[in-house]
């Protein structure tokens, strides 16, 4: 091992005091190919566009007209679980539009109206159903418009 002289030590210390940090070389970021995923749902942008335009035909549909609130909830849960297990991706859920005339004095106004239209989105947001669903959006006019919902199911695990 070589012994360091006092002169070498002084030179080293002077050079060390004058030292400046090396600037990091930053590579310019290359534009990554943007994937068209809309949020955490996993439904890509192309599928979202086709849903919005009504270009996708639902794999199945369920009409909840005429069912009580409790029966509709049970039927909807069972239907969506079955649809997912069969590998369906897009299901149309028909709720109806409620009271189209907004006539508050009509005989059918004695009980609440549009209950399913209000409740189905809430049910779909509950954890047991939300785990199956990738996306929910109002149906296109050709599939029922305001009286129906597209439910895009996740792939079964």
From the N-terminal CA to the C-terminal CA, the straight-line distance is: 65 Å
Structural class: alpha+beta
> Can you tell me the residue ranges where pLDDT is under 50 for at least 5 consecutive residues?
34-39
The sequence of SSEs as H and E is HHEHEHHEE
Major sheet summary line: 4 strands, mixed
Spatial order of the strands forming the largest sheet: 1-2-4-3
Strand elements, count: 4
Rg for CA atoms: 31 Å
CATH topology of the domain at 67-96 and 126-157: Ribosomal Protein S8, Chain: A, domain 1
What's the overall average pLDDT, rounded?
Answer: 79
Helix content: 25-40%
Shape: rod-shaped
Description:
The chain is of the alpha+beta class and 157 residues long. It has a domain at 67-96 and 126-157: Ribosomal Protein S8, Chain: A, domain 1. It has five helices and four strands; from the N terminus they run H-H-E-H-E-H-H-E-E. Helix 3 (69-85) links the parallel strand 1 and strand 2. The longest helix is centred in the middle third of the chain and has 17 residues, at 69-85. The radius of gyration is 31 Å and the shape is rod-shaped. The N and C termini lie far apart (65 Å). Mean pLDDT is 79; it is low at 34-39.
């Amino acid at each position: 091992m070589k012994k360091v002289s006092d002169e070498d030590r002084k030179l080293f210390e002077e050079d060390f005091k004058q030292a400046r940090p090396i600037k990091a070389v930053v590579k310019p970021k290359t534009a990554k190919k943007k994937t068209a995923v809309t949020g955490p749902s996993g439904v890509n942008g192309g599928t979202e566009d086709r849903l919005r335009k009504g270009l996708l035909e639902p794999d199945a549909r369920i009409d909840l007209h005429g069912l009580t609130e409790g029966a509709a909830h049970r039927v909807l849960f069972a239907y969506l679980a079955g649809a997912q297990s069969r590998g369906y991706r897009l299901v149309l859920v028909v709720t109806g539009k409620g009271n189209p005339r907004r006539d508050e004095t009509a005989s059918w106004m004695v009980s609440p109206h549009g209950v399913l239209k209000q409740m189905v989105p809430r049910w779909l947001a509950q954890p047991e159903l939300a785990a199956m669903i990738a996306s929910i959006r109002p149906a296109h006019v050709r599939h029922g418009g305001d009286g129906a919902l597209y439910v895009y199911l996740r792939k079964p695990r």
